[in-house]
Predict the structure.
Amino acid sequence: MPRRILALETSCDETAAAVVENGERVLANVVASQIDRHRVFGGVVPEIAARMHVEAVIAVVDEALRRAGVPLSGIDAVAVTHGPGLVGSLLVGVQVAKGLAFARDVPLIAVHHLAGHIYANRFVRPLRFPLVALVVSGGHTEIVYMPEDGAFVPLGGTLDDAVGEAYDKVGRLLGLPYPAGPHLDRLAQEGTPRFLLPSPRPREGDRYALSFSGLKTHLRRLLEEAEARGETPPAADVAASFQQAVVAALREVAAEALRETGARQLTLAGGVAANRDLRGALRALAEDAGVEFVVPPPELCTDNAAMIGAYADVLYVHGVFADWSLGAAADLPLAAASLPGREAPPGPTRKAAAVIPRFSTEPVDVGDNPGITRG
Ligand code: KG4
Ligand code: ZN
């Protein structure tokens, strides 16, 4: 009998439900995006996000079951993202998942959002360990080493803004609509990277650390100074320069991780994985290093529930279930997503992982709009 998991994802501004079979087949994947409601604020407003999840979640679950052609009675477990993310948003999914699992008397499975992003690659190709995963989205920038299935060793990530967030902020400087990532990416294809920008890799200290706020400040100043001189630098050249600096830094940390861990596979995930230059650079890196490169199709890169079902299946097979006290964890370390006994795997990166502070998943400032945060 196939295992069918109903998965829910409400960590940020997408209300999503999916039905996944054996962790490998997507029977249905429904996503209701709230982006139109948040766009005018230039970021996600947590209060609005939570309320919209409440309004949409049952219809989204119902639609996922309908499209999968599976009744609720045909579901073997209910999985849900319990963190990290916006706490009010997470609570909606957690509470609905608990209700459904309780009513059907099936296991409840708690999934880490980033574990889901990484396991979205399962739908493309079987994961092969050890692997290195790069998770890049509007809320996250993490480089992760996985020595085996269900073992997450965070190597590092951003010390300030997430990559997608940096795209959105720089895009705003250039007058692009939110979310600016895809627009900036397109613009960059038409420009020449002629501005010399600071590298997002701190010169000293941790090899896996990234920092994007300096880059953004540098660009803001560059544009302000040009304006004071009565000049307008071509937006396409600014975009191309920014993209080149970002992609080069991500390629370098990925290269470093492949070298250090001897991984067999490089996987990319998160909304920024849609970026053309980034995909191309990592594909080339993987080819040079002789490792397999995997990236999900765009609809499985951005937030969705199928990815939550993909990792939930691993937890199901290992009998890792949540109890009825499950809550939402706004700031949940990725290492906590590891299977029991695989939390601190031995390997070349153990020491490095122990000393690297995990980047904060707390809501961060998005400029002039008080009360607006990115999840
Ligand atoms: O994973 P995602 O849908 O939501 C979060 O969990 O944040 O990622 C959305 C982010 C946004 O910041 C958006 O600007 C960025 O991904 N993004 C891109 C591209 N497409 C989306 N950034 C750069 N290049 C792109 N092509
Ligand atoms: Zn995400």
In short: Confidence is low (pLDDT under 50) at residues 345-375. The pocket of KG4 (ligand 1) is lined by residues 12, 137-139, 164-165, 167-168, 179-182, 185, 270-272, 274-275, 302-303 (CB under 6 Å). The beta strands are 4-9, 14-21, 25-33, 77-83, 108-112, 131-136, 141-146, 153-157, 265-269, 292-294.
